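User: Show me sequence and structure for the first protein, then do the same for the second.

Assistant: Starting with the first protein.
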Amino acid sequence: MIELKNVSFCYVAGNADNDEVVEVTSNGSLKNIDISIKDGEFILLTGGSGCGKTTILRLINGLIPNFYSGKLEGKVLVEGKNISHAELYDTAKLVSTVFQNPRSQFFNVDTTSELAFACENRGMPENEILKRIDETVRDLKLEPLMNRSLFCLSGGQKQKIACASVAVSRNKVILLDEPSANLDLKTIDELQELLAKWKGEGKTIVVAEHRISYLWSLADRTIILDGGQIAKELSRSDMDNIGEDELHALGLRTNKNSVVDSRLLKNKEAGTSPAAENRENNPISLQNFRYKYKNGYQALNIPSMDIPSGVITAIIGKNGEGKTTFLNCICGLLPHSKGTVVYKGKAYKHRARQQLFYLVMQDVNHQLFSESVLDEVLISQPKADEEEARSILATLDLSDLTDRHPMSLSGGQKQRVAVACAIASGREFMLFDEPTSGLDYTHMQQIGKILRQLKSMGKTVIVVTHDRELIQECCDEVIDLKAYNLLSQA
């Protein structure tokens, strides 16, 4: 049993010295939350970015107030224990969490050690630990990821390992924060199977998620948050009868599995697509495009690929197939990549490509440097223009956050700040790596609108994505990387 009794919480945004007043942020705060979750119940938490979903998970797993400080009122009980007064190592024996950014929860450098870590900490016998690891690897089909460096895994592969570390612990309560954010379609299906297995075992499961379609048949209830309060609660019967238009009116994504229009998939031989007649005759041409990591692992071998200019092209593929590496090579971030990038008859070397392309990374924490959101946009401009910077932030619903430190924002808000920086850069080619990761329906649509605006400005947009709704929303063409990368075909 999990209970939140009249819980309110605000994060502390700064440090208090002596008698100084502590600044408290409203982002992710909660107001008068009452939730009761039965043993074995599956709860879907959803709502707009920054509405408080992650905060609820942090209350249940004890990270608030033990790690994240702030003003807490009310009680949080798990199995009758007041979690806010318990030690984290005791709570960890009851509750397991898969974080939104799995990299933040790893303690080891290789995958096998990571799976063993929680069990070793509890002093379990070696035979029991090895048995649990073997069963988990088999159930999750993780054999290709074992004995691998965590630093060499894709975002989706890291998410798989995070789920596996939770499975090995065998705790009664499992929390997941945006678990599908970096996963390909096949892996989302595998995650759905894993969740169904956990539910069948009687686990109590709470998932904070924007992409709700794969969870809709599993959840016993859906709790919708808005501005830190419970806006609506749907029973299983309500979920069975609610329409898609009603969900969109609540700011939620579809509860049905979207299917990418097969006509969008670019035919390698025919070279035809709905956008073919309208695009420019100046594609970005990649020839003998190859990349090998320092450890000898070869990620890319693309003999030839043309990406149309002047349109929005989605690059799709399975986790670990080289999509992020592909973007990093194109924009010149990996100087040891081989091959040529030709545009309008001119070959661009690595340094020159950095002035032509702008990349919004999958983990935007790597590219946020300034003390405020406004400063972040200003330093991205060729020449600082505060009026233009504020206008860009307004188009992305970020005006109220201009003075906030970027690291204090939610994952979805950070993503939008990075998109704002891309727009401010004025580059001709915009590359996006999972730009809707962690975004709700409204802001996913907003990103789609922004990408279309970039296209109308004459920009070429290349977006790596697993988000079927985004593809349907704005993409003109879809390229499956596997059709071009010989290493994926082996």
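Switching to the second protein now.
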Amino acid sequence: MREALKQARKAAKLGEMPVGAVVVRNGEIISRGYNKRETKKNALLHAEVIAIDKACKKLGGWRLPGCEMYVTLEPCPMCAGAILNSRIEQVYFGASDPKSGCAGTRMNLLDMNLCNYRTEVHKGIMAEECSQLIRDFFRELRSK
């Protein structure tokens, strides 16, 4: 999660919502990502999607068996779908998202009978650090 927080800080420096994600397999970081929606003007460029895309390229396929994801903010519906479709086995997230969290807060798309695959969810990992980064970002944004 510390590496995901580093990625989130990179996003914040760019004026992006500070969300970072890493994909790990066998204890090794396979890929990293951070939000780039504003920078690239693309709604798809969430940290999780970027990390999944890089992991798929590195591992040579769209399935990511044996992989887990660490992300600073609970995945939204789009990211939860990408996590399911890539067959990531476990997701560890920091801050819950009361507005659009789809890994247990609003709903849990990762553990529904929507498809033939489920992802195990672990929430609240370094939650205070992840939440504080988001609070600080929005406090600074409002002050501008």
